[in-house]
Amino acid sequence: MTQGIRTSRLGREGRDEPYRNLQNYVLHELGQIIVAGRIAPGDALPTEPQLAEEFGVGVSVIREATRGLAAKGLVQARARLGTRVRPQSEWHLLDPDVLSWQLAAEPDHDLLRDFEEFRLMVEPASARLAAQRATAADRAAIGGALERMREALESPEDYFAADLDFHALLLNATHNRMLQGLQEAVRSALVLRHANVGPVLPSMHESLPYHEHVLDAVGQGQPQEAEAQMQELLRLTGRDDARLRGERLREARSSRPEDAAAL
C-alpha cells in the first residue's frame, strides 16, 4: 500500500484491545505513524478508501479518526489537496495522545531539551504559588509522595513513580486551573526523561534533599525559597541528564568500529 503506512493490518478481527473502538485504534495508529516521521510534514495521507482498506474498517471510521488528528494539530484537510501532515511546530505537543506518541517514537533529544526548558519555566513558579496556596491536605499529599521516594531509594522504578506524583501534586497545590491542567504534560516530560536517561541510584540520592527543601519551603509558606529550591532541583536534573546522555552517546560511538578510533 501507500508509502509510510504499513500497519499490521489489524482490522475488525485481529486488532489488540487497548482501544475503546475502531476509530480510536485508527487514530492512535495514524498518530504514531505521523509522529515517528513515516509521513513527513507537507506530505499527504493516503486517501480515505486506501486507509479503509489497509485498516480493514469503513471509510466513516477513517474520516472520524482523521478529524481527531486534525483537532490535535497533526493534519489539515483541504479540498483537492487531500489531508496533509502539518509542520511539527503546529502540533498540539501538550495533548496527552501526542505526548504518548512522541514517547513511543525514537528518542528525540531536541524534544527532551524542550521539555526541560518547559519545566524550568513552569515548575519553579508553581512551587512559589504552592507555598502561598497549598492547603493542609495538599501538603500532606506531597509529603506522602516524598516519603515514598525516601522508601524507594534502592528501587528506581518505585522512586520514579513517587517522583511523578510529587511533581504533579505540587502543580495541583497551586490551585491555579491552568497550571493544574499541565499535570499530564509534566508527567509526560518526566516519563520522556525516564525513557531517555532513566533514574540511577547516585542521582536519586543526590536529588532527594532538593525535593525535601522544596516541600519544607512550601510547608513554611516561603514562596521565594520554594521557587529557588525548585530551580536548583531542575538545574541538578539538567546537569545529570546532560552527563548521562553524553556517556550513552560515547558508549554508542565506541560500539561502532569506525568511530572507536576517533574517541
TrEMBL record:
<keyword id="KW-0804">Transcription</keyword>
<dbReference type="InterPro" id="IPR011711">
    <property type="entry name" value="GntR_C"/>
</dbReference>
<dbReference type="Pfam" id="PF07729">
    <property type="entry name" value="FCD"/>
</dbReference>
<dbReference type="InterPro" id="IPR000524">
    <property type="entry name" value="Tscrpt_reg_HTH_GntR"/>
</dbReference>
<dbReference type="GO" id="GO:0003677">
    <property type="term" value="F:DNA binding"/>
</dbReference>
<dbReference type="GO" id="GO:0003700">
    <property type="term" value="F:DNA-binding transcription factor activity"/>
</dbReference>
<protein>
    <submittedName>
        <fullName>GntR family transcriptional regulator</fullName>
    </submittedName>
</protein>
<dbReference type="InterPro" id="IPR008920">
    <property type="entry name" value="TF_FadR/GntR_C"/>
</dbReference>
<feature type="domain" description="HTH gntR-type">
    <location>
        <begin position="20"/>
        <end position="88"/>
    </location>
</feature>
<dbReference type="InterPro" id="IPR036390">
    <property type="entry name" value="WH_DNA-bd_sf"/>
</dbReference>
<dbReference type="Pfam" id="PF00392">
    <property type="entry name" value="GntR"/>
</dbReference>
<keyword id="KW-0805">Transcription regulation</keyword>
<keyword id="KW-0238">DNA-binding</keyword>
<dbReference type="InterPro" id="IPR036388">
    <property type="entry name" value="WH-like_DNA-bd_sf"/>
</dbReference>
